[in-house]
Design goal:
The chain is α+β, with helices and mostly antiparallel strands and 240 residues long. It has two domains: 1-32; 35-239, Muramoyl-pentapeptide Carboxypeptidase, domain 2. It is 41% helix and 8% strand. It is built from eight helices and six strands; from the N terminus they run ααββαβααβαββαα. A four-stranded antiparallel β-sheet has the order 3-4-6-5. The protein is globular. It starts with a helix and ends in a 9-residue tail after the last helix.
Length: 240
Amino acid sequence: MSKSIVFLIIFSTIISFFLKDNEKIENKENQYSNIDKNYLLGKVKAHEDTMFLKIPQKLCLKRTEYIHKDVLPHYLKMYQEAEKQGINLKIVSAFRSFDSQKWIWNNKFYESQNKIDVILKILKYSAMPGSSRHHWGTDIDLLSTQLSYFETNEGIKAYNWLCENANNFGFYQVYTNKPYIGYYEEKWHWTYLPVAKFYLEEYKKQISYEDIKDFQGSEFAKELNIFEKYVFGIDSLLFK
């Protein structure tokens, strides 16, 4: 066989792999294009929807949790790898519906002459219903949502492991201590970027302030510019 023929075979094989990879990327983009608005706002029932899967109970710290079906396999791989290092990446919270977020929000809200001050206090760590990334099933809270936990030896070890390894599995910390406006740093909140980025893009296209309603203080969402400051006030790595 001549060198030119061998070269053509190798070149054709490389091109074939390249085209297949491009096809996979295009299929993924098509799969997540034009996501239904109800998914973006969390107005779905995870236990009745094939988009979500139940997380094995032994991996949940509290109640039964659901997660986006394309995220669970990658979380399980990360969990198993961390477990080898004696780190237990159990989930505090995964998918959260609009109604669940509304319950959290309204329980933190209280009447005051200055409602904006009240809302800004809640927005340090809690999203307005309809604007939470947890609605998508792509984001998970790990280990604990208490800052004090991440000051313990166990919490420091787990967080350091996540910083060094989570990206290898597609997970990124959403709210860091890097300079940006929005929520305070959350060492527990991690997103599966390969899926979440499509939801974020669709959110920007489809959701308006008219959709942010039906909870206490919702009338101030536009005035407080929650889309720019909070929904898109995330670590710059998530825009890559």
